[in-house]
Amino acid sequence: MIDSAGLYPRASAPLLASPLLQPEIDPPKEGQGGLETAVEASPNTELSMDPELSAVVSTASSDDYAQLQRRYILATLTVSAFAVAVTALFFDLHIASSVLVGALSGVLYLRLLARSVGKLGNGSKSVSKFQLLVPVLLVLAVSRLPQLELLPALLGFLLYKPAMILQVLLES
């Protein structure tokens, strides 16, 4: 069949791409599935409604997260100290100081990011953007101080990433 303008064929029944998209002929009756059986089938509904148990789980998870933060910051400080020592050995102290300033700003960035992520469940619905000021201030400080170089400072700032990768590899 052709439509009134004669351009496009008109289908007598709607064309659906998948049989999954076709409407159900017999929707489930009350008590035959749906939300009622999903709630009844869940054996842990009593446990998830207990406020004391959820407080214990929340405290345990926040302690685990604090321990994870400490491990990541310690790994970042270790990798940074190694990188600064190698830079001081193979290059001059001018470049090593730039790497050190960048590494310390990377640790500050990581700490601010971890604190922002830690606040997510406690009333905050998104991660703060405050930690993004750290690389901006680093670039401004490098541009104002003639003792610092930009590229080594930025590489020092990014040392938290290999430290995190190394920490993940050591955990697994």
Automatic annotation (TrEMBL):
Predominant location = membrane
Q: What Pfam family is a match, any one?
A: CGL160_C
Q: Which residues cross the membrane?
A: 72-91, 97-114
Q: How does it sit in the membrane?
A: Multi-pass membrane protein
Keyword set, alphabetical order: Membrane, Transmembrane, Transmembrane helix
User: Which InterPro entries does this entry report, sorted A to Z?
Assistant: CGL160/ATPI_dom
Q: Which residues form the CGL160/ATPI domain?
A: 56-169
Its subcellular locations are: Membrane
Please give an example of a GO cellular component term from this record: membrane
| Protein known as | Possible H+-transporting ATP synthase
From what organism does this protein derive? Answer: Prochlorococcus marinus (strain MIT 9313)
